[in-house]
Amino acid sequence: MPKVTSMYKAEIKEKIIQAAIESFAQTGYDRTKMEDIARRLDLSKGTIYLYFKSKEDLFLAICEYNIQQGDKEDAGLFIKKENVVTDAEQIYDNIRRREQGNDKVMLEMVAESTRNPKLRKAMYEFHVKVHEHVMEGVRSKIEDGFLKKDADAASLAIALVALYDGLAVNRMLGVSDAANKKAWVAMLKAMIAGAS
Amino acid sequence: MPKVTSMYKAEIKEKIIQAAIESFAQTGYDRTKMEDIARRLDLSKGTIYLYFKSKEDLFLAICEYNIQQGDKEDAGLFIKKENVVTDAEQIYDNIRRREQGNDKVMLEMVAESTRNPKLRKAMYEFHVKVHEHVMEGVRSKIEDGFLKKDADAASLAIALVALYDGLAVNRMLGVSDAANKKAWVAMLKAMIAGAS
Amino acid sequence: MPKVTSMYKAEIKEKIIQAAIESFAQTGYDRTKMEDIARRLDLSKGTIYLYFKSKEDLFLAICEYNIQQGDKEDAGLFIKKENVVTDAEQIYDNIRRREQGNDKVMLEMVAESTRNPKLRKAMYEFHVKVHEHVMEGVRSKIEDGFLKKDADAASLAIALVALYDGLAVNRMLGVSDAANKKAWVAMLKAMIAGAS
Amino acid sequence: MPKVTSMYKAEIKEKIIQAAIESFAQTGYDRTKMEDIARRLDLSKGTIYLYFKSKEDLFLAICEYNIQQGDKEDAGLFIKKENVVTDAEQIYDNIRRREQGNDKVMLEMVAESTRNPKLRKAMYEFHVKVHEHVMEGVRSKIEDGFLKKDADAASLAIALVALYDGLAVNRMLGVSDAANKKAWVAMLKAMIAGAS
DNA sequence: GATGAATGAGCATTCATTCAT
DNA sequence: TATGAATGAATGCTCATTCAT
Prior knowledge:
The structure is a homotetramer.
Chain A: H1 9-27, H2 34-40, H3 45-51, H4 55-72, H5 84-99, H6 103-113, H7 117-143, H8 153-173, H9 177-194
Helix pairs in contact in A: 1-2, 1-4, 1-6, 4-7, 5-9, 6-7, 7-8, 8-9
The first copy, chain A, binds a DNA duplex through residues 1-6, 9, 33-35, 43-47, 49-50, 53-55.
């Protein structure tokens, strides 16, 4: 019994991607059944195959989607206020909000990327972009005098991104977000203080 | 010879665990077949079941094993030299050496821990231990005057561990270890400079 | 305009049958998708169901169609010239032309007929008709003195049809048509010579 | 619950092949479920996959098996007695006995061979062998004076094989074996008479 | 009438687990 | 103890069929 909604294909595709993100995040890629994803949307298994040619294809679409979402984000998000020290907390919240719920899928993506070269390449490129973006922020802070002129912007950017990622892992293990945020703030303050 | 037998059993168990770590790291938990693990040891599938009652049981044993290995590590490893700044690089290498090859399994463990409360608890406790250990290091640096008296040792410890974990993720994505190490050193130097 | 409409319907039905014959011949009944047939005609899958209630129904329609086509053929086709010996080659070509492209579908029909009693009955009846027709030809040759008065017209007719069918199988296996034709001619000549 | 019979792998393989021949003959390749074959042998689906890596692989094994069985047959089977005319019936029975029950699978094989070049090649080569064997028989008859010195042995051989194949098709359609045999005998007698 | 999106039964294949040897 | 043949539940994917538009 076809439903024949007038919804655009692209919209349905996105809905499926959303549902799949939830499922993959909850159960992991391998343990998620196509039917699980379908049921979340009150669709039948077969319908998903009208939009994605395989489970892997769907996963890759999610990866692309997540990466593109990252691209779309406001480039000023990371470090935009004048006073990094007082805004460290705000920055953390900003990043968190934008990643909302994607941590676990990201984890799946990282795990999968160790086996799928194409995905690894895409994720690597994404990371490079994020690094560049963060590095820009760090550079502007250098120019603003918050950090020393000779600070290694590239390395600090990598470290900041890694720090955030590591805190995301913490969260998954049950570390309270308050503790994470405090760690983030403490480190950022120390960094600013030390590199200025 | 019950002792010998039991030692023998324990040895085989550990061998299986080692082989499983390699397999899980390479292929991921779900995609690793019991047969793959068996073949690495020139054992038969059935034999593994003499030592572990299920695939999940084996995975949990690996988790326990990894966590215990962490415990056994020299508590002075993290920050033992007087001069943290000049030894930052050395510290990074030390940690790396001790984690050698376990990054990917750790990733699997984290992913699995989001579904398995028992595992999550174990990993959380492990992280707490690591945090405490690192915190001790940070505290001793505070006492030695390398860091300010009012530095938040707990938070900085969390941040340092998170930083390291994030760099491990970077590695999996193909970020060069040189870049990672530079990021680590840059951050540590900034931190030391800023918090002192 | 009911007549026009009905003629139109009949035309479409025949077009679908033609397309289905091609598809079934190429891919086999089971592996042919309704969509394949539809696409050959720039129709949608659903449209075929307006003319045939199921895939099986369509296949059965093809069978009927093929059987009826056989019926419509000029009854004089098989052996019409006076001199069977010199015309053997011509006869082979005549049959081939009339069966053009239907060999493979016929094969599918035979295979299917072993499971579908209704189809088997229809095909059996068709064969009986063909046999009768060929037998008529053989009889006329007996009357004309080309074959002995006591020749077993029925059996020779069955054999001739079987011979042709067997050569059709050869063709499918890649035996050259030249070789097949030579075999046909050699056998016919021998038969005529021997039975006269 | 493993059965762990001591039966040799090769024997089991052959049993599976036999069961598959029956199933494929009865239901056709596409409609035969792996489970059907397994159930015939009181095996589980999975077991078949221990011996054949896929359904197609099993089918191909059957093809090979059938072709090899043909090779093994007594080369003198076809025409061995002095008097072809009186023994025509016997010859037909001989061939039938040796093909016992394989007609339908052969049909499946021919159908499949139109899509599978590897199979087509194998079947073509098999036919060539059969042709050669029959041709030898025809030649010996020529030497024995049963057929004219200038008879086209190759073509007659092809025709004889085709005749037999065509009668096999008849059988599948429900033509009585008696009628088929009569046709065979009538044609052979006519041929011998005509070509001598 | 025509369409093609949606459905879901159906099936090939995999692999953790068992247990007779 | 060790083995590996056997099992069968589980699941990705296909495709004939339906029906809202």
